[in-house]
Design brief:
88 residues, mainly alpha, 2 helices, rod-shaped
């Protein structure tokens, strides 16, 4: 008997407030199941027996933020149409 331990992965997703985690989970499971089915079709008689390892990795999402103040030219500042908060 020949055995194989292929790796099936889903895509990386950003989860922020308001994200439907159940939808992301369903999409990830569907992607892995599709990958497994494609692997089984690759050669005849491959059979799924068990999950050897399942890992879910998470990381804190910290979006980039501006950290400098550039004064507006006097002509633009006088129009009172642009918000440009001064550095505190």
């Amino acid at each position: 008997m020949v055995t194989a331990e292929p790796t099936f992965r889903s895509d990386v997703e950003a989860i922020v407030d308001g994200t439907d985690v159940n939808e992301i989970h369903s999409v990830a499971v569907d992607k892995m199941m599709e990958s497994m089915a494609n692997f089984q079709r690759m050669d005849s008689n491959w059979q799924f027996r068990s999950v050897v390892n399942l890992a879910i990795n998470t990381a804190v999402y910290k979006p980039l933020r501006g950290n400098s103040y550039i004064p507006l030219p006097k002509e633009l500042a006088n129009k009172k149409a642009i918000i440009n908060t001064e550095k505190q």
